[in-house]
Specification:
- The protein is 73% helix and 0% strand.
- It has a domain of 32 residues.
- It starts with 5 loop residues before the first helix and ends with a helix.
- With 74 residues, it is mainly α.
- It is built from four helices and no strands.
Length: 74
């Protein structure tokens, strides 16, 4: 996995700010969840996330809830 530069991250976030509010909220919810659980996400789970994002085959809200749900109860 290639490490993104600070400028690359900012560039992406700037693009997100131009998205419709509903889409921005989805990104914000995802980022909050990752922030809360980032140490608990396995390398394998990150690989799945990245592979799906590359294919634009992102997880449904139900699938996301299943993954994060197991950490909420921990």
């Amino acid at each position: 996995m290639a490490t993104m530069t600070r400028d690359q991250v900012k560039e992406i976030l700037d693009r997100v700010l131009a998205w419709p509010a509903d889409d921005q909220e989805k990104v914000a919810r995802f980022v909050r969840e990752v922030e809360e659980r980032r140490d608990d996400i396995t390398d394998e789970e990150w690989e799945i996330i990245e592979a799906r994002a590359a294919r634009r085959d992102l997880a449904s809200e139900r699938e996301v809830e299943q993954v994060f749900g197991r950490y909420r109860s921990a």
